[in-house]
Amino acid sequence: MSPLLCTYSYPAATSIAAMASAPLLLCVLLIFTYCLVALGGRHERGFVVVPTSSSSATEQAACSFVSQVASGPNRASVPLAHRHGPCAPASVSSGGVKPSLAERLRRDRARRHHILSMATGRTTVTLSDSDAAGVSIPTSLGAAVDSLQYVVTLGFGTPAIEQTVLIDTGSDLSWVQCKPCNSTSCYPQKDPLFDPTASSSYAPVPCDTGACRDLADGGYGAGCTNGTGKSLCQYGIQYGNLDTTVGVYSTETLTLKPGVAIKNFSFGCGLSQQGKFDRFDGLLGLGGAPESLVSQTAATYGGAFSYCLPPVNGTTGFLALGAPGSNNTAGFVFTPLHSSPEGPTFYVVTLTGISVAGKELDIPPAAFRQGMIIDSGTVVTGLPETAYTVLRKAFRSAMSAYPLLPPNEDQDLDTCYNFTGLSNVTVPTVSLTFDGGATIDLDVPNGILLEDCLAFVGDGSDDTGIIGNVNQRTFEVLYDSGRGRVGFRPGAC
């Protein structure tokens, strides 16, 4: 390394002592600054200098489109946006107002715990007559939806009517609110309600059919209902936060974009929704069970889909069906996709190691033996307790230059920092290594920090963990069930 040359111009009437000490002080400052810049090379030094969240807040005021979908001969993609950001459609936008961090973490904790509890089996409750006409439905078929953050806009029916729906890899059956829903049986939405009578391609599923029996076998059936003199198949879902949706199981044409449509798409035409639903028009199920969009389109898209979750609210990502072409996977790293003991809905991978600032942590391999569910709707990553304890210690050590905030009993995150008055901070890199050797460097800082807090928690045991969506930001995450693998491509949005 070349020696640093320090120069300094002395103002008039400067003392001899000050003249002697100033170059030394300035040289030290220059060396410190030089080192901070040098640390910005994540692969060499393991640290990155980044602006603090307060200094970069203005960058999120407008929407920008930066997504790069990996191409393939049989892929279809749509834009994806954060529901609380400027890129969200006006129909679901909250105008910049979003729940507090404590409230988002409360919802996230409920979702995470519900997903992990599904291994204990499903239970059934009977909803009241005012809620859903006395329908008995399983309680564990969907994780809480009030924590979901990302939306896409699709066309339902012929002619296609735009509906903005939440995406959820923790759910299978898709649904939208339908007419004749009213204010007492459905929640308010800004988009027009989908009107099945105005669509030439809509068809309700009769009760005494194989499709209705399959729905019941999958746990989503809720008996039969009468409509226009016919006995129709009824679906019902109660989510982990006790929100419910009940309606008619139906088929319809789903338009992804002009010229790309899925005919006879099975979904729920919701006639009674109760709970904390807000603004969005419905939900798009991306789980692995037969009722999901992924399974229904497997013949066309090979059971593969991917998404890229943007690093900040002011940019867009994408949702794509199908896998990239075989000659266009150079940017991906792959790890085996495993079956889930919790059922076919969830996607499981095996985490084998974690590195902080370029150094692999000493975590016993047994800590990861139960696998990690990748989930689009969970926010922070829930690690096995043994792994989290080691990660927290290493991260705090690497961030020791910054004051650690005292624990907040209103939220799960226990490694939060006070960056007040700072425009830039130096953050250590965090890397995840999976079965087969696939290693991903999480985006710095957006894939590591959530409002100046480490976006990981310990789940109290060494059972199955969940990789949350903060860690997934900027990656194209490819779920390729047909080939039994999950891929990660950095810098996709």
TrEMBL record:
The keyword Transmembrane applies. SUPFAM superfamilies: Acid proteases. The keyword Metal-binding does not apply. GO terms for biological process: proteolysis. GO terms for molecular function: aspartic-type endopeptidase activity. Coiled coil: none annotated. The active site is at residues 168, 375. Keywords: Aspartyl protease, Disulfide bond, Hydrolase, Membrane, Protease, Signal, Transmembrane, Transmembrane helix. It comes from the Eukaryota. Gene3D superfamilies: Acid Proteases. The chain crosses the membrane at residues 12-37. PANTHER family: ASPARTYL PROTEASES, OS05G0203912 PROTEIN. Belongs to the peptidase A1 family. This is Peptidase A1 domain-containing protein. It comes from Urochloa decumbens.
